[in-house]
Amino acid sequence: MKKDNCALVLGGYVNGYSIIQELHEKGVCNIVLFDTSKRIASASNRIRKFVLINEAADNLYAELKKLHEEYDQIIIFPTDDLQLENLNEIYSKTHLFCFLPFNHRNLAELLDKYQQYQYCAKLGVPYPQTVRIKKSEEIDKVLSLRFPVLIKPNKREDMKSEVFRNLEIRNSLDLEKKKRCLTTFISKGLMMMASEIIPGDGSNIYAYVGYRNKKGRILNEWTGKKLSQFPHDFGVFASASNQAPKIVLEQGRVLLEGMNIYGIAEPEFKYDHRDGKYKLMEVNLRSMMWHRAGNLSGVNIQYTQYLDAIGKKSLRQKQTKYKDIHFVCLKHEILNLLRRKRYLKTFLNNIFNSDKTYVAVFDRRDIKPFLMEINSLINSLRPDVKSTR
User: Fold this and answer.
1) Rounded mean pLDDT, 309-319
2) Domain boundaries, the chain
3) Average of pLDDT values for 176-203?
4) Where are the beta strands (DSSP E) in 119-172?
5) Model pTM greater than 0.90?
6) What residues contact 359, with CB distance under 8 A and at least 6 apart?
7) What is the CATH number of domain 3-106?
């Protein structure tokens, strides 16, 4: 006999495990994990089932059909852009039994970072000076921007090909050196965008996270900031806090509504001290890596999606701001400490300079994922040990 519904988390790293933690804490029992490898969340005692899948949309559809034999409705929580692309591809075959947290009509457009900046221009939200590069002959457009410049594919292509996630260009000579590399990828059909690099390190990055339902209402929201990134200032989250100025909240709302986004979305901004503006870096259309910071400061965005999917009303929650709450990926912080010069002060601030610090993945009642993370940290250090002998 089928059960009513299940929460399906796609991807088992920190963001996926954090979704599992939040849903379990709110009393959701039927939690299933799909992933392309056995990462930390696969060891959790909070899940009913773990299914190993591959990266093809057809395989995802086949496994969803099997899961539908057990559950009437599947509420899906994606954690990366490739998953969103695959879900969009199989939308017509799955939307009757799956709750798909995105706007099918415009998802393909919104996954294009350059198009996100076009929306910024229409909506009056600041963004970095940017040019699009469709053909190799257009690479010199980069010279119209202030150096240094960051070049990256319009969409997240590094998850399905060997292309770089981003490429820093320091000056015109550096551009000449890297033209061959850029031409190679452009000739394969990849479109690029180049943006001026806003000065400042990873602690100047702020985020708005909201859940907007299919009727166009933002049901819950929170804001925060990154304290540091890994392995450098153009990397991924290492530590974050629940603190952010009101303008981040206001600009985030404008983007969710103006772009007609459904589901969980995270516009990410960087503060530019040159003009005092918070400029959009990108809009993530799914749960990003440090979303647990919002949960720990009183806002349950993932549970809000779950309640919306099953037709129950969610309470409007007010985020805790009077306490400075830090959310720390210990693995990334330790690697930063060992590999980045003059990082000790940042490390100590992130770990100790807060009202309350929470370590990602750590849960005494569900310890195996954390042990897997520590084992991964040890394995990450082994090449360094060998190189010093």
Assistant:
1) 96
2) 3-106, 129-196, 202-382
3) 92
4) 130-133, 149-153, 167-169
5) yes
6) 328, 330, 370
7) 3.40.50.20
